TrEMBL record:
This is Sigma-70 family RNA polymerase sigma factor. SUPFAM superfamilies: Sigma2 domain of RNA polymerase sigma factors, Sigma3 and sigma4 domains of RNA polymerase sigma factors. Gene3D superfamilies: 1.10.1740.10, Winged helix-like DNA-binding domain superfamily/Winged helix DNA-binding domain (1.10.10.10). GO terms for biological process: DNA-templated transcription initiation. Belongs to the sigma-70 factor family. ECF subfamily. It comes from Hymenobacter setariae. GO terms for molecular function: DNA binding; sigma factor activity. Keywords: Sigma factor, Transcription, Transcription regulation.
Length: 191
């Protein structure tokens, strides 16, 4: 006849009986693992959860008052699994064995990118502000509104060659100005 859970728990609390603890572990670990796996579908996380539950039982044995072991352990595994899921949903970090298994969408910091984009826009606007008005206008029509050189020439009633010269002047100025700011890569994308 198996020893009741309550008797095993009393032996663990009173004498730090490792044999009684091993008996409880063998009796319940698979049930806890199965319950955790039903929620998480992650073998390593479930093993860690079961380990943590039994570690807490051992380290807090003098303080814990457990009346019904199956109910206590069932609640503990549900709580730990839910806690693990919350941690995953709030954590921006994911771990993978290989870089190619990571999706770029999940690992991309959109907030930082937006701030860098705003900073770059301000720097670009400041650099453009140093150019003559006509040069600024041609650059904005070409690079921001995506007009062709012919369309710009027709719209502004100037020659195509004048448009090309103004764009060359603007790009040269931006390369020199923004290179000092460490954003040369943007100009390469613009020109």
């Amino acid at each position: 006849m198996p020893i009741p859970d309550a008797a095993l728990w009393e032996a663990i609390q009173a004498d730090a009986d490792t044999a009684a603890f091993a008996t409880l572990y063998e009796r319940y670990w698979r049930r806890l693992f199965t319950a955790a796996f039903a929620q998480l579908k992650d073998r390593e996380a479930c093993q860690e959860i079961v380990h943590d539950i039994f570690l807490t039982l051992w380290t807090e044995r003098a303080r814990l008052q457990i009346q019904a072991f199956p109910a206590y352990l069932g609640a503990a595994v549900r709580y730990q699994a839910a806690r693990h899921q919350r941690a995953l949903s709030t954590s921006p970090l994911r771990y993978a064995d290989a870089l190619d298994t990571l999706s770029t969408a999940a690992d991309y910091n959109y907030g930082e990118t937006q701030l860098l984009g705003l900073d770059l826009e301000q720097r670009l606007a400041a650099a453009l502000g140093q150019l003559p008005q006509r040069c600024q206008e041609i650059f904005l029509l070409s690079r921001m509104q995506h007009f062709s050189n012919d369309e710009i020439a027709e719209r502004l009633h100037i020659s195509r060659r004048s448009v090309e010269n103004q764009l060359t002047t603007a790009l040269r100025h931006l390369r020199l100005t923004l290179k000092c700011m460490g954003v040369l890569w943007v100009i390469q994308n613009l020109g």
